[in-house]
Specification:
The complex is a heterodimer of chains A (about 110) and B (about 575). Chain A is of the alpha/beta class. Chain A has a single domain (about 5-115), classed as Transcription Regulator spoIIAA. Chain A is about 35% helix and about 25% strand. Chain A is built from four helices and five strands; from the N terminus they run ββαβαβαβα. In chain A, helix 1 (about 30-35) runs parallel beside helix 2. Chain B has three domains: about 1-165, Jelly Rolls, CATH 2.60.120; about 165-365, Up-down Bundle (Rhopdopsin 7-helix transmembrane proteins), CATH 1.20.1070; about 390-580, Phosphatase 2c, domain 1, CATH 3.60.40. Chain B is rod-shaped and about 125 Å long. The chains are: A alpha/beta (about 110), B alpha+beta (about 575). The interface between A and B is medium-sized, with 19 and 29 residues.
Chain lengths: ~110, ~575
């Protein structure tokens, strides 16, 4: 049973935290890319919060990768936190270190972004 | 046929002269049935002449009128009222409804009372004793009042011996609504799981329930029954919904106004019932009329929008007519709880019939389209199966379990001069688009320039550049001598003799052009490759099968591994390939 994705965006100056909730699948385009495209100009750092994301399928991961690639062209720095160990491994396996860094929690991500 | 005839009779009865110089008086006195009683001081009501009864509560009324009794042939008195007793020349012919002041009836029906054979032809005095609600206008157009009181020769209506009762039209309504409802249920179950059909179904179900209710209670339903009140207030909701569905996405302002107008009906209805008074009743009635006028305007807007969007115009007009006539009847009737009239019923039946035909045609078209798509999918499935089921080299075992008709996983194994080459991967997404990319990949693999895993992935990455999504892929070359060479593009790492291999991984294919892929070497006698459908199989507790469980069973056969993942909870394509090393 796939739960729809909700996204909460918290903007604080040039730092944005995108908090996802629910599964990220092919149906999450608006929740992931839609919200990313509506970020204010001048955003340079993006924290992706996966704390409340139990599952990402390959299509959902494709959306996250598209976000990261778009951010790398701006350029914007993207950091991820809250991923389950399984998806930490999947993100690593996918070679996403080129576009992002993975952190255990928000504090670690905020510390790394400074 | 008989029911159709009766329906026509009912319409005719309502369409005729409502009153023939009827005298009206409030109060109650059985002497008023006497033909000799002098009613010259009573006010007269005629058709299209306003005569509003202004009283503070439901009250008893008497109507007296002179009617012509046909000479030498049987006649009937037709009365369409909720609660009344009928007297002819002082003799009580019968009654209908409920004259109990605390439980006046709201649902009306046509009743026929036989004129006694002994009644002489010529002019007779017809008196009707009834309850009548305050604020109701006695003289309004035929479609609203339902106040028909008239005498007709029986022969002009039906064959001798037939019973003239409004109840007789209900079997026809029930039959039509039942057939329509059955058809829509079948459509909903078999092909069309959409909200428009569901709303149509609810509408027809409510119309059916209304007809059954009216039939079973013979028009004596008490208006104090909140259930009936709610029922009448909300009957047309699904009809409005269907109309707006055809109109397409609505601006919030219009949707809000429409919803508000619909919602206002209920409290106004309740307020009308609970607080009847000389000052409140006319206000609540006018508010109720205003709400209906607003609804009508918005319904017209829905028809125009739907027409511009290419919605079926016949259905739009039928729906609008049903709403228009229903509203017209209620607005002109004055009271919000008037029963459903003949024209209302006719339009409802017409709309139901048209909606059923529409759903049937749409369902048939959709099923035809689904069959065409299914054939295409089957063709794609066949092509994919042919591509994947090529003869595998000895020592290679593979199981492929697609999650849908056409999956996005693939594997290919070749014995080449360089050794045994295995390529396995997963295209993001499913369906025909994924199948097309798999076909592209397999075509590219069969025309590869090199057997080196890193070169194979680089070539596939070039071929897939610009395609939507991405493709994870793992390529391994098992040379006759020496360790295996493995390159990975984001695919789950392979297992060798029960341990997870640490191989260099690169970006999935199709994302970034020109990226290099590194090779790792690995030793082992038996290698297992799985797609993410294995590690991400999910059970009912939303627990993933995971990498550890996969590693633990990685020495089992491909079939056993795939079965274990499927039993855990398949939610993606599952592919397992096992390869025995050639150096063994």
């Amino acid at each position: 049973m796939v739960t729809p994705t909700k996204t909460k965006v918290e903007q604080n100056g040039d730092l944005v935290v995108m908090r996802f909730e629910g599964d990220i699948t092919s149906a999450s385009e608006e929740a992931v890319l839609g919200h990313y495209k509506s970020l204010a100009a001048g955003t340079t750092k993006i924290l992706l919060d996966f704390t409340k994301v139990p599952y990402l399928n390959s299509s959902g991961i494709a959306l996250v990768i598209q976000l990261m690639m778009a951010a790398s062209k701006v350029p914007q720095k993207v950091l991820c936190f809250g991923l389950t160990p399984h998806f930490v491994k999947v993100f690593t396996m996918l070679g996403l270190a080129r576009y992002t860094t993975l952190h255990a929690d928000e504090a670690a991500a905020r510390a790394a972004v400074q | 046929m008989k029911a159709l005839l009766l329906l026509a009779v009912l319409a005719k009865a309502l369409n005729g002269q409502a009153f023939l110089d009827a005298k009206v008086a409030r109060g109650d006195n059985l002497r008023w049935a006497d033909p000799a009683f002098d009613d010259s001081r009573w006010p007269t009501v005629r058709e299209r002449q306003s005569h509003v009864v202004e009283d503070s509560a439901w009250n008893r009324l008497w109507l007296r009128m002179r009617v012509e009794i046909p000479v030498g042939e049987p006649a009937v008195v037709l009365v369409y009222r909720c609660s009344c007793e009928v007297f002819l020349n002082g003799v009580k012919l019968g009654g209908t409804g409920n004259l109990d002041e605390t439980r006046p009836a709201a649902v009306r029906g046509l009743r026929a009372f036989d004129v006694p054979a002994a009644t002489p032809g010529g002019t007779a005095l017809l008196a009707v004793r009834e309850y009548f609600p305050p604020g109701r206008d006695l003289s309004v157009p035929f479609w609203a009042t339902r106040q028909a009181v008239r005498v007709e020769p029986r022969s002009r209506l039906l064959a001798a011996g037939d019973e003239v009762r409004a109840d007789d039209v209900y079997p026809l309504r029930i039959l039509i609504y039942s057939v329509a409802l059955g058809g829509m249920v079948v459509a909903l179950i078999s092909a069309r799981r959409d909200s428009t059909v569901l709303a149509l179904m609810v509408y027809v179900a409510m119309a059916l329930a209304n007809a059954i209710l009216s039939w079973s209670t013979s028009g004596e339903q008490s208006i104090t029954s909140i259930g009936v009140l709610l029922f009448i207030a909300w009957t047309s909701l699904p009809l409005h919904y269907v109309l707006w569905r055809f109109a397409g996405p609505l601006p919030w302002s219009i949707a809000g106004a429409y919803g508000l107008a619909m919602l206002l009906r209920l409290p106004l209805c309740i307020a009308y019932l609970l607080a009847q008074s000389p000052w409140w009743t006319p206000i609540s009635t006018q508010l109720y009329r205003l709400g209906y006028v607003l609804l009508l305007a918005l319904a017209f807007g829905a028809v125009v929008r739907g027409w511009r969007r290419g919605a079926p115009i016949v259905l739009l007009l039928a729906g609008f007519c049903a709403i228009f006539l229903g509203i017209l009847g209620r607005v002109t009737a004055g009271a919000p709880l008037a029963g459903r009239g003949t024209v209302d019923t006719l339009t409802s039946i017409i709309f139901t019939t048209m909606a059923t035909v529409h759903v049937f045609r749409e369902t048939r078209a959709r099923r035809s389209e689904e069959q065409r798509l299914r054939r295409e999918m089957e063709s794609a499935q066949t092509v994919q199966a042919l591509l994947l089921s090529q003869q595998r080299p000895a020592g290679v075992d593979a199981v492929y379990m697609p999650a849908s008709e056409v999956g996005g996983d693939f594997y290919q194994a070749f014995d080449t001069p360089s050794g045994r080459l295995l390529v396995t991967g997963d295209v993001s997404g499913k369906g025909l688009q994924a199948a097309m990319r798999v076909s592209t990949i397999i075509g590219a693999l069969r025309n590869r320039q090199s057997d080196a895993p890193s070169a194979v992935l680089a070539e596939l990455n070039r071929v897939l550049a610009g395609s939507p999504g991405f493709t994870t892929c793992c390529c391994a070359l098992f040379p006759p001598q020496g360790p295996a060479r493995v390159a990975n593009a984001g695919h789950p790492p392979p297992y060798a003799d029960g341990r997870e291999l640490e191989v260099a991984t690169g970006l999935p294919l199709g994302l970034v052009t020109g990226v290099p892929y590194d090779e790792s070497t690995a030793t082992g006698s038996r290698f297992t490759f799985v797609s993410d459908g294995v590690v991400e199989a999910e059970n009912s507790h939303r627990e993933l099968f995971g990498f550890d469980r996969t590693r633990e069973i990685s020495m089992q056969s491909a079939q056993q591994i795939a079965d274990a993942a499927k039993a855990w909870g398949q939610n993606d394509d599952i592919t397992v390939v096992t390869v025995r090393s050639m150096t063994q």
